[in-house]
């Protein structure tokens, strides 16, 4: 009886493994960024990510959640993060719209303001596999990572000075032109 159960269990495992292998090898798995996600893909990925972050026991932020930290974080964010995660009041960039999964727009809706700063810190420092999110721990200082993390954790209640610092830069060619008496144009 026990021998039959063990053989039945092993046979079920072999059949299941063969079915998974067949599915992967058949070319039916959605791997293109334009393909729809597989069933439960987002739920399983988020479950694994959250469990891993919790296991890491990231410390609380040594950077205060105040205007100077937000302003410093805004500069780092615009240089390293905005192309994928956007800025307040602007639509997602064409670049981010082509990614899968699409990067969260951190200043639209609730963004990651419901995440504690340490979670955003971990994601920015370590990156997220198979998502396009790179690791910045070798590119940014620990203080810069915490400043950006505090910024996005408080994205819904930023001071006006920080919102202005996050505004997209207006390129010089966008400055209005006015004609002069000689018919040439000059910048206002």
Report the span from N to C terminus. Answer: 91 Å
Cα Rg: 24 Å
Number of discrete helical segments? 8
Low-confidence stretches: 172-180
What is the beta-strand fraction?
under 5%
CATH superfamily of the domain at 51-168: Cytochrome c-like domain
Topology order in helix (H) and strand (E) letters: HHHHHHHHEE
| CATH T-level fold name of the domain at 51-168 | Cytochrome Bc1 Complex, Chain D, domain 2
CATH architecture of the domain at 51-168: Orthogonal Bundle
Quaternary status? single chain
CATH top-level class of the domain at 51-168? Mainly Alpha
Widest sheet: strand order? Answer: 1-2
Shape verdict:
elongated
Structural class: mainly alpha
Mean pLDDT over the full residue set: 87
Write structural notes for this entry.
The protein is mainly α. The chain is built from 8 helices and 2 strands. The protein has helices at about 1-25, 40-55, 65-80, 80-85, 95, 115-125, 140-155, 160-165; strands at about 175-180, 185. It has a two-stranded antiparallel sheet. β1 (about 175-180) and β2 (about 185) form a beta hairpin. The termini are far apart.
């Amino acid at each position: 009886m026990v021998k039959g159960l063990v053989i039945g269990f092993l046979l079920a495992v072999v059949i299941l493994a063969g079915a998974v292998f067949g599915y992967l090898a058949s070319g039916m798995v959605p791997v293109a960024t334009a393909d729809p996600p597989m069933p439960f893909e987002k739920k399983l990925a988020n479950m694994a990510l959250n469990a891993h972050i919790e296991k890491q026991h990231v410390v609380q932020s040594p950077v205060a959640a105040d205007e100077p930290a937000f302003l410093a974080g805004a500069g780092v964010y615009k240089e390293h993060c905005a192309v994928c995660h956007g800025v307040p009041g602007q639509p997602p960039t064409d670049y981010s719209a082509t990614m899968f999964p699409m990067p969260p727009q951190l200043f639209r809706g609730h963004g990651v303001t419901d995440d504690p700063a340490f979670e955003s810190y971990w994601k920015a420092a370590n990156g997220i596999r198979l998502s396009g999110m790179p690791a910045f721990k070798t590119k940014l200082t620990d203080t810069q990572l915490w400043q950006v993390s505090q910024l996005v954790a408080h994205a819904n209640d930023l001071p006006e000075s920080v919102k202005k610092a996050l505004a997209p830069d207006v390129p010089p060619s966008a400055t209005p032109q006015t004609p002069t008496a000689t018919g040439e144009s000059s910048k206002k």
